[in-house]
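Hey,

Quick one before I head out. I ran the complex with adenosine-5'-triphosphate overnight. Inputs first:
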Amino acid sequence: MSILPKNEPHKPAGTPRNFFIWGPTMSGKSYLAEHFPNVLVLNTDGNSAMGTRPSIQLKNVRNSDGSLKVSVIDQLREVLLELGTTQNTYQTVTLDVIDDVCEMIKQAICIKGGKETLTDFGFGKGWDMFYSILTGLVMDLKALPINVIYISRENTKTDDAGNTTEVPSLKTKFYNIVNGNCDLVIRTRHVGKSYLRNVTEIRRRYKASEVDDPKILEILKVIPNALAPETKVGK
Ligand SMILES: Nc1ncnc2c1ncn2[C@@H]1O[C@H](COP(=O)(O)OP(=O)(O)OP(=O)(O)O)[C@@H](O)[C@H]1O
Ligand SMILES: [Mg+2]
């Protein structure tokens, strides 16, 4: 039997599953992520203790001699394996915040290799290891049958003409790896008494009638431009 699929158009996925939420501190990133269905928070900044969802604190644990006891890389591997292979009720996993996860991965590689920085490995070897671990993590997360949310803080970028724009604080190279696997990028802001959200990048315009998860639909409905208007019959 051929392994090639039948050469005919197929319907694209109607429900976004991979999200990137960014914004300044206290702008409602974690709050928005908590409203996704059955969330498990993989937390780096301790802030999730303020939230109401179950969480796991990500960290590199050292022995008394400074060597690595448990690396964040192994910890993430174990959590993902359990999420993917055991019967559990989680429907969403959040990395709060992905910037810190990247720093912890770098730190784990350096401690293991006895180096101060990734560059000290020479010949780009340290960075190769880092990119391969980050790419693997993002791909493993995407392969899980649940929603994935990456949270990042906010930074400003100034161009040659002196114009400043707000951007996710995750380094562009890392952001491209993560975002290449996301369907929807949402920015949060806290202005006066309002908590605002807007879509900054979207894979395709999702239609309410095609979103098969009512809780995701509820969230998309309150984010301007996350949903495309339904095409009217006869038009
Ligand atoms: N849409 C909202 N409606 C009401 N309260 C909100 C809303 N969004 C956030 N808040 C409140 O604002 C505070 C900050 O929100 P949150 O912790 O989600 O911010 P954050 O962007 O994750 O901040 P940090 O970067 O520090 O982690 C919390 O007390 C939260 O309950
Ligand atoms: Mg937060």
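The first strand starts at residue 18 and ends at 22.

Talk tomorrow,
K.
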